[in-house]
Design a protein that fits this description.
There is one protein chain. The chain has one domain (2-54). It has 68 residues and is mainly β. The protein contains no helices and eight strands. The strands form four sheets. A two-stranded antiparallel sheet has the order 1-2. Helices cover 0% and strands 38% of the residues.
């Protein structure tokens, strides 16, 4: 697990392991590559970003791998 502060001073804990945290995730960062290039979204104010899914009470996040 990696722990660091973002540019606003918020603590970020990053893990690629299953069940690494005691609490369920509230945000999921989705990092994708397609044909060797990063998949980004365009935000009006922030520019290019990796897609982020915000978890809402009662909502299930579906994460799947789409291969060639």
């Amino acid at each position: 697990m990696k722990t660091f502060l973002d540019k606003y001073g918020n603590k970020v804990e990053l893990s690629f392991s299953d069940h690494a945290f005691d609490e369920p995730a509230k945000h999921v960062l989705i990092i994708c590559q397609y044909e060797g290039k990063w998949l980004l979204t365009q935000h009006k104010m922030r520019g290019q970003n990796f897609p982020v899914e915000r978890w809402k009470q009662g909502k299930r996040l579906k994460i799947q791998h789409i291969g060639k």
